[in-house]
Amino acid sequence: MIIALVGRKTTSKDLVHKNIKEILTSFARKIFERGHEVMFDEDTLINFIVNTTFMDDYNSKVKVGSFKCVSKSVDVAIVLGGDGTMLNAAKVLSANNIPILGINLGRVGFITDVPVNFDHDKIITMLENIEYTIENRSMIKILDGDKIALNDIVITRNTGKILEFNVIIDEEHAYTTRADGLMVSTPTGSTAYALSANGPIIHPTAKVIEVLPILPQSLSCRPLIINDTSSVKFELISGEADIYIDGQLYKKIKYSENFNVVKSDNYVKFIHPKMKELSYNYFNMLSEKLNLNILPGTQRT
Fold first, then answer.
1. Which residues of 17-54 are buried (b: 16+ CB within 10 A; e: fewer)?
2. How far is CA 72 from its chain centroid?
């Protein structure tokens, strides 16, 4: 197997995991020792791998390339980071259907299944023995654009003035409202920003899209769950807005501009462990991350 190792970017203020360099190089050594090959994307190599004893030992064996090159060259990718790292890596790797395993170095980790202290040898054995399932996660995009979102596409005001806009679904007018903005979310994104905006939790394999107004002025303007084959058209009729794709600024729009959001043809392939020592269960994950198993009046553990 050729295994890609992708590491999250850290800063001097990042207290989550300052030892990511040691984790990455230790993991890479194990992969080589087990008879497999390692490939790094250029950012991971520059940020964590150069000038290490690992490179002194394995320099001639290490493969490196751009993210697009990595997605064309590997059999599987292991991403070490939080949900943000997984988002960025997954969207590139999805172009070539590369299965991705997430190791959580972040805080919450809705889409990174494996604890950072889990034995590296057992992870490699899991991949060798296919002790896992692959779950396809849908994505969305702006029609006629090349940017895809695994979580959400958000339109939000960029001035102090509230927005007025129309929402058209499958060429039928759904509603006109005044609000701070609008969010179009995938099922994966339902536990991200959409959850903070009082949207429902949606199972990640559900074939739906969530349309969620952000702080609407009308109490009757509620989230809509629609079929993922639908298109969502946004028409700005007052104000100025910014469009964000998975938290990254995409473009600015002004009065009378519009755009359509549709499902992407690509899927992200997440690896979920099915081992005796570690097995993925979506509802157990929700209970752990959101304390759903806590009864009123009982002490949290």
1. beebbebbbebbbbbbeeebbbbbbeebbebbbeeeeb
2. 20
The pLDDT tens digits for 256-280 are 999 999 999 999 999 999 998 898 8
pTM: 0.90
Active-site residues: which are they? 83
Q: Which CATH class is domain 140-264?
A: mainly beta
* Structural fold of domain 2-131+274-290: Rossmann fold (3.40.50)
Q: Which is nearest to 152 in space by CA: 190, 118, 179, 119?
A: 190
Strands 232-238 and 258-273: what pairing?
antiparallel
Sketch the domain layout of the chain as residue ranges: 2-131+274-290, 140-264
Name the one residue in this structure whose structure tokens are 């207290």: 15
Residue 218 is encoded by which pair of tokens?
Answer: 């009308």
